[in-house]
Amino acid sequence: MADARALDEVVRFTSDLIRIDTTNRGGGDCRERPAAEYAAARLAEAGLEPTLLERTEGRTNVVARLEGTDPSADALLVHGHLDVVPAQAEDWSVHPFSGEIRDGVVWGRGAVDMKNMDAMILAVVRAWAREGVRPRRDLVIAFTADEEASAEDGSGFLADEHPGLFEGCTEGISESGAFTFHDGSGRQLYPIAAGERGTGWLKLTARGRAGHGSKVNRSNAVTRLAAAVTRIGAHEWPLRITPTVRAALTELAALYGVDGGLDDVDALLRKLGPAAALVEPTVRNSANPTMLSAGYKVNVIPGEAVAYVDGRYLPGGEDEFRTTMDRLTGPDVEWEFHHREVALQAPLDSPTYARMRAAVEEFAPEGHVVPYCMSGGTDAKQFSRLGITGYGFAPLKLPEGFDYQALFHGVDERVPVEALHFGVRVLDRFLRTA
User: Fold this and answer.
1) Is 177 within 8 Å of 195 (Cβ atoms)?
2) Which of 359, 351, 361 is nearest to 425 (CA)?
3) How far apart are CA 374 and CA 357, in angstroms?
4) Which residues are catalytic?
């Protein structure tokens, strides 16, 4: 089991990493190198030989391999990203890059997404070095840049340009899984991610006839764009139940003693109460308009108008997504992928999933492990190009009332010290047996 020093280190590393501002504003505006150098130094102190790699100056990734005892076993990728989304200090109770530890809680941007997991990985590897522990299978440890944007400078770059570093890796673990979900009735659920919806960020362009704002204009680009955006925002997507979501619904229905099966999924979700939030975002494709840009003067009708849409599609749902976008945008609006990544699905009957479940149950015997599909995406998408199956497993034991999901990209992001201690213990247990 992880020693007392590992428990101290995970807190300190989380705080230290938060204080290194790695804000990713998109468009290449980020510099992860200081955080990468920090992580690499901690790995080197544990006897590993980390490699630092960049596609773009300052956008640094770290990769290291810890050899296992069984050379015939497939390797496991353990990865976390170093960048974070922006934070406005005036909105926060503490400065978002202070890494302040107050009342048993570590505060700051990245506390849950995902410098906490980065710190757990470092703490476990260093504890093993002190104890002389080696895992059964090789572990490839990767800290990546650019996950909060396109991943072109991070996992995409690594997968495309340095696949040899991941030789033998067949599975990987990363963020968004094995956290405590309180259902409001005393039950504690621990969802482990075994799938992700695909990413379809769209750029919509409407063109028309430019002219004076006082004249009738039946070819107004803004009107055309607004109509398409309205249709997209109002569209009701049909239910599509993937194997991972089906397994999640089946296990939750059994846990709550809910009858009716999967014939009426919407009715089943209503019966599950708060626990339905784990599944609701992943029973359909989705498309949310997020950005609009048109014109330069109130009395000038522009010849072009542009919008952006955050689209997500289920495994097997990309064709339906494309066809629906063709129909909703109509003949007067063109659409293209601004950024596209695949949907993922991982097997629930694998030994790795069973070992993750067992590790959580050992330290949270009162909890109920359930599978789920992430509504968003992670670096697992890019690593899937190398044939690596991805799971979401960044364990945290959270107190009731602590809204983990709301803190992703939210204000006052924070993580309890005890949650980090739990995470180190569970991650240590899983990786020893993986």
Assistant:
1) no
2) 359
3) 17
4) 83, 147
Cβ proximity of 198 and 422 under 8 Å: no
Q: How far apart are CA 276 and CA 191, in angstroms?
A: 12
Find out whether 71 and 9 touch, Cβ atoms under 8 Å: no
- Count other C-beta atoms under 10 Å from residue 402's C-beta: 19
Judge whether 233 and 289 are in contact, CB under 8 Å.
yes
Q: How far apart are CA 374 and CA 381, in angstroms?
A: 12
How large is the greatest C-alpha to C-alpha distance in the chain, in angstroms? Answer: 79
Q: Please, what are the averages of pLDDT over each run of 10 residues along the chain (434 residues)?
A: 92 98 96 98 98 98 97 97 97 97 97 97 98 97 96 97 98 96 94 97 97 96 98 97 96 89 87 94 97 97 98 97 98 96 97 98 97 95 98 97 87 97 98 94
Please write the tens of the pLDDT for every residue from 371-427: 999 998 999 999 999 999 999 999 999 999 888 888 888 999 999 999 999 999 999
The pair of three-digit structure tokens given for residue 243, joined into one six-digit string: 């194997």
Give the three-class secondary structure for 346: coil
CA distance 109 to 81: 13
Beta bridge partners of 25: none
> Which of 144, 141, 244 lies closest to 196, judged by CA?
244
pLDDT by residue (tens digit) across 303-340?
A: 999 999 999 999 999 999 999 999 999 999 999 999 99
Query: How far is the first Cα of the chain from the last one, in angstroms, to the nearest whole number?
Result: 15
DSSP for 211-268 reads EETTS--TT-HHHHHHHHHHHHHH--PPP---HHHHHHHHHHHHHHT--STTSSHHHH
Length of the chain: 434
CA atoms within a 13 Å half-sphere pointing along the CA-CB vector of 78: 25
